[in-house]
Amino acid sequence: MLKLQSSENKATRQGFGEMLVELGKENPNIVVLGVDVTPSVKTDLFMKAFPDRFFSVGISEQDMIGTAAGLYLAGKIPFVSAYGEFAAGRPFDQIRQTLAYSVIPVKICASHAGITVGPDGATHQSLEDMSIMRSLPHMVVATPCDYLQTRKMIRASLDLHQPLYVRYFRDNTPVFTNPDAPFQFGKADKLIDGSDVTIIACGLQVWEAILAEETLASEGISARVINMHTLKPIDRACIIEAAEQTGAIVTAEDHQIHGGLGSAVAEVLSQSCPTPQEFVAVNDTFGESGKGDELMKKYGIAKDAIVAATRKVIQRKKR
Question: Looking at the predicted structure, is the pLDDT value of residue 2 above 90?
Answer without folding.
Answer: no
